[in-house]
Amino acid sequence: MAVIADKCPQYKVTIVDINQARIDAWNSDALPIYEPGLDEVVKRARGRNLFFSVDIDTGIREADIIFVSVNTPTKTFGHGAGMASDLQFVEKTARHILECSDGPKIVVEKSTLPVRTAEAMERILHSNSKGIHFDILSNPEFLAEGSAIDDLNSPDRVLIGSHQTPEGIKARDTLVAVYANWVPRERILTTNVWSSELSKLTANAFLAQRITSINALSALCERTGADVDEVAFAIGKDSRIGSKFLKASLGFGGSCFKKDILNLAYLCEHFGLPEVSQYWKSVVDINEWQEHRMVSRMLDGMFNTIAGKRIAVFGFAFKADTGDTRESPAHTVVRDILGERGFPVIYDPKALVNAKFDLADVLDKVELQTDPYLAAKDAHAVVICTEWKSFKSLDYKRIYDSMQKPAFLFDGRNILDHAALKAIGFEVVAVGKTI
User: Which residue stretches of 87-226 are H helix?
Assistant: First the structure.
C-alpha cells in the first residue's frame, strides 16, 4: 500500500488496523517492521496521500477499493488443526465491510488464502438487504521479505483474478489501471479467481520444494564428499532448472512457506487426493529434519556433548534483511541446544526484540547479546543461522582468540570463507560439505 501511494499520488491510500500501538508506530519515525527502503517510501507518501488510522468504519465507507490483508494462520484447533488456514479474521473483515458500506465496493483478497475463499466472502457480502453490489478480486502478493520494495517497484508479475462476467472484468480492469501506473502491462496477468488463489499457494510450495530438495541432497554430499555448492551450481546451469532457491542451509523459515504448504496439503486431502497431500507434507517434514540436523552435527563434532557449553548463535531472523523470526530455523537450533543443556547466546542485528518474545519461556536459560564479539567470548562454538552480510566482515581472528579451544564454527548458511577460518584455527562444519 505504501508503494501504491508512492507511485500513484492521485490516489488516497488509508491503512486501518484495530491495534492503536501499531498505527502509532506507522505514524512515527520508528516503523513497526524493518524492511530495506521502506522508511523512505513511507516518509515520501505519508501525510500526502498515505494515511494510517484506527478508524476502520470511516476507512471502509470512503474506499472504492478495499484490500483485505488480515492474517490467515494455520488452525490450532478443531477440524483441520495443524494444516488448514484459520479464516475467522477474513470472515470478520467481510462482515465488517458489509456493515459499514453504503455503496458498491471492489474487495481485493491480498492475504494468502485457500482456493475458493472468495466464494465465502461473496456469500457474506451479498447477503445484505441494502442492494449493494460487491466485486471480489484475488490479487496475491509475491514479494519477498528483505527485498520487498524492489520486488514491488519492479515485479516479475502482478496477478489479478476475477470472475469472467462483465462486472468482474470491469472490476479487474479498475485494479489493472492502478498497477499500470508503474508496472508494464505485459507483467500484469489476469486469470479467473480460483486460479489466482491457487497460484499463490503453488508458488510458495514450489519455492519451498526447491530448498527442501537441495537440503536433502546436502546430507548425501556430506556422506560422499561431494560439495553441495558445486552440485547446485552445476544443476543450476541447466536452463530447465535454473539457479534460484538452490542454496543449501538450515532450512526455510518465515510466515508463508510452511503454512501455505500445509494448507495446500489440507486442500488435497479435502478434495480426495491423499497421495498428493502426502507429497506436499513431505516437503515440510524434510525441512524440519534439516533444522534439527544442525545440533546433531554439533554433537558429532563436539565430543558428543554440548551440555554446559556456551554456544554463540549468530542470527535469529529467518532470513537476512528482516527482523521477522516467524518459523525461523534458528528457533529450532536454540531449542535443540537447550534440549542438550547447552547455553545459547544469541546475536542478531535486527531480530533481538522478536527473539525475546519467541523465547519468553526460556529467557533465564539464554542470553541475548547486542555485540557479536561479546556473544562469542568464551564460547565453545559459533553457529551461523542467518545469512546477514555483516557476518562476513566480522574479525574472526578476534573471535577465535576469545573462544574456548578447540573452537568450532558451524556455518548453517555457507556464507563464510571456510579455508580462511581453518587457517585461523577453527574446526569448521558447513552444510553439504566435508571440510
Answer: 88-100, 117-125, 148-153, 166-179, 193-224
Q: What pLDDT, on the 0 to 100 scale, is given for residue 347?
A: 98
| CA atoms of 133 and 126, how far apart (whole Å) | 7
Q: Within a 10 A sphere around the Cβ of 418, how many other Cβ atoms?
A: 17
What CA–CA distance (Å, rounded) separates 430 from 381?
13
Q: State yes or no: pLDDT of 118 exceeds 90.
A: no
The residues facing 346 across adjacent strands are: 313, 368
Rounded Cα gap, residues 175 and 270, in angstroms: 32
Catalytic, 256? Answer: yes
Three-state secondary-structure class, residue 328:
coil
Which residues contact residue 119 at a Cβ distance below 8 angstroms, ignoring those fewer than 6 apart?
none
Torsion sign, CA atoms 171, 177, 179, 185: positive
Q: How far apart are CA 224 and CA 242, in angstroms?
A: 24
Q: Are 118 and 151 spatial neighbours (Cβ–Cβ below 8 Å)?
A: no
Which grid coordinates are listed for 359? 523465547
Is pLDDT at 32 greater than 90 in this prediction?
Answer: yes
Residue 435 is predicted with a pLDDT of 82
Assess whether pLDDT exceeds 90 at residue 226.
yes
Residues with Cβ < 8 Å from 360, sequence gap 6 or more?
none
Give tens-digit pLDDT for 374-400: 999 999 999 999 999 999 999 999 999
Record: fold of 2-192: Rossmann fold (3.40.50)
The CATH-assigned architecture of domain 302-430 is 3-Layer(aba) Sandwich (3.40)
Per-domain residue ranges of the chain: 2-192, 302-430
Same topology, domains 2-192 and 302-430? Answer is yes
* Collapsed DSSP state (helix, strand, coil) of residue 365: helix
Question: Of 8, 100, 221, 256, which one is the catalytic site residue?
Answer: 256
282, with CB counted inside 10 A (0-12, 13-18, 19+), is middle
For the chain, percent of residues with pLDDT exceeding 70: 100
**Closest residue by Cα to residue 416 from 322, 284, 329, 314:** 314
Quick one: cell of 401?
A: 582468540
CA-to-CA separations, 141 to 8, 69, 148, 196, in angstroms, rounded: 18, 10, 10, 10
Nearest to 188 by CA among 142, 149, 146: 142
